[in-house]
Amino acid sequence: MSKRKNKKMMQYLLHPVIFILAISALSYAGGRPLLAMARANMNMLIEKGAPSYSNEYNSEFTDLFTADKQFNIKDIQIPEYGAHYGNILCQNIDMKVPLYYGDSDELLEKGAGQYIASGLPGEGRPILIGGHDSIYFKPLEKIAAGDTIEIQTNYGIFTYKVTETKVAEASDTTAYSLIGEKEQLILYTCYPFGKLIGDRNQRFFVYCDKTDGQKD
């Protein structure tokens, strides 16, 4: 008799526990998409605000180097992946962006990211750099042909003039080329600027020719 009572008591105790676990699992499964959506919307709202570079922008690049600094191209060292090795500036559109070597999602949350298969400033090859349209590359919406863009690195400063802007499909591989001996700076971001809902299958490209920065 006592065994039967103990069995019933165990059942009474287990049923509420199982019920609570089941409800918790269903709540987690059902609420996970909502939490993800809320987090995404929160990030987008934060990105829509005015960007601040106090924690990421390193003014030492400006203080240490001048545009006429001589350097040997052989002395250029490839940065470590994820390194903040430079800054991008454009006074015409009030843009100041930290430049990282690599273009992972984590790096693009900190600043602009360089595609590592492209050239470094001063190497004489095309340079491909991407950034988010809702924060770091938002000022590109106002850029125009003739504007000047400066890249400050830890080995020198390089100046580029905007020659053209273009909107292309994200899948359009003809929108840029990384083959060639001409040093061309190519910046790109999602288009339309600041669009939160709908397809984001287009990219806004800015093409620039190098005008300053010396090499031996």
From TrEMBL:
Stretches assigned to coiled coil: none
Gene Ontology molecular functions: hydrolase activity
Protein name per Swiss-Prot or TrEMBL: Class D sortase
Active site (UniProt): H132, C190
Alphabetically ordered keywords of this record: Hydrolase
Keyword Magnesium: no
Source organism of this protein record: Anaerocolumna chitinilytica
NCBIfam families registered for this protein in UniProt: sortase_fam
Domain of life: Bacteria
Keyword Hydrolase in record: yes
InterPro entries registered for this protein in UniProt: Sortase, Sortase_D_1, Sortase_dom-sf
